[in-house]
Automatic annotation (TrEMBL):
It is found in: Cell membrane. Its main location: membrane. This is ABC transporter permease. InterPro entries: ABC_transp_permease. The chain crosses the membrane at residues 15-36, 48-71, 101-120, 127-145, 165-184, 213-232, 252-282, 294-313.
Length: 320
């Protein structure tokens, strides 16, 4: 094999390693297009966009935590509490309608902040800290709501409506994705997160405030989870105590499928979006093919296992 051929082989291997999820998404879309004529229709594609928006926004924030070698299991519950508090203080307690979104975002950010502090200063593993927060926040959601749904404010309901022909959830997803990508790739917050995730001890010795970085990435995760919760509540026109139950698993899966490493130091917002789309397209395609929801869970589990296995193999190749 001559040098040019070796270079092409290397480039292809590198491209597949870095964009495996995107290639998989394209192949998946082609297969579903062949399998069912309803897949590549405008209404169905719009439906996929709406369905993926909540998970994608939640996963954008979670990417920061995973890049910093952490895990956040509380994002689904944080989404529910943010939506519930926002709805309560506007429709029940009389807070001005326009403030409702800010209230929801603040609740999400503070929840993430507390999780980060438990991990950074309380020395709890991020898995345990976020698991504790998952239970605490879901309980607070039930306390605030008394176990009943609460109608959302007009501002939150607008997040679930359309702006002209385009659904607001898709617009919010695109805007937040661009913001998250900028922060992760172009600011000191993102650079420090990569440094901490890549080698925590080296980051500490180089003067990076590791504890502050952990608190910051969890606060960002909570902020995005709060927005995701209000997107979902806006679509339903109500905040419900069981809102976003189990969404944390899909959000983690989206980040991992998108190429982020659970060991930290690797991750892209664009990859996270592709990962979320892979999950949404699989579910949508299986629904169109009338596949049982039970089997859908099996398929999603296999996809997640393959993504994590690919990450393990990739890290072994990097070390060697």
């Amino acid at each position: 094999m001559n040098a040019a051929a070796k270079q092409r082989h290397f480039d292809l291997k590198s491209f597949l390693a870095n964009n495996g999820a995107l290639v998989g998404l394209v192949v998946l879309c082609i297969a579903l297009w062949i399998a069912t004529p309803h897949f590549l229709t405008g209404p169905n594609l719009m439906n996929i966009g709406i369905q993926v928006s909540t998970i994608a926004v939640m996963a954008f924030g979670l990417t920061f935590v995973i890049v910093a070698a952490g895990i956040d299991l509380s994002v689904g519950s944080v989404a529910a509490l943010s939506a519930m508090v926002s709805a309560y203080w506007t429709t029940t307690a009389g807070l001005p309608d326009g403030v409702s979104i800010l209230v929801g975002l603040a609740v999400g950010a503070v929840s993430g902040l507390v999780t980060g502090m438990m991990s950074a200063y309380g020395k709890l593993p991020t898995f345990i800290a976020s698991l504790a927060m998952l239970t605490i926040v879901r309980g607070l959601t039930l306390v605030v709501s008394d176990g009943r749904p609460i109608s959302t404010s007009e501002s939150v309901s607008f997040l679930g409506s359309n702006l002209g022909p385009v659904p607001m959830p898709i617009i919010v997803m695109v805007v937040t994705g661009l913001i998250a990508a900028f922060v992760l790739n172009r600011t000191i917050i993102g650079k420090n997160a990569f440094a901490v995730g890549g080698n925590t001890e080296a980051a500490r010795l180089s003067g990076i405030p590791v504890k502050r970085v952990l608190v910051t990435v969890f606060a960002i995760s909570g902020l995005f989870a709060g927005l995701a919760g209000m997107l979902l509540a806006g679509r339903l026109d109500s905040a419900q105590p069981t809102l976003a139950t189990g969404y944390e698993l899909d959000a983690i899966a989206a980040v991992v499928i998108g190429g982020a490493s659970l060991a930290g130091g690797v991750g892209r917002i664009s990859g996270t979006l592709v990962g979320a789309l892979v999950l949404a397209v699989i579910r949508n395609g299986l629904n169109l093919l009338s596949v049982s929801s039970f089997w859908q869970q099996v398929v999603i589990g296999v996809v997640i296992a393959l993504a994590v296995g690919f990450d393990v193999i990739r890290r072994k190749n990097v070390r060697h």
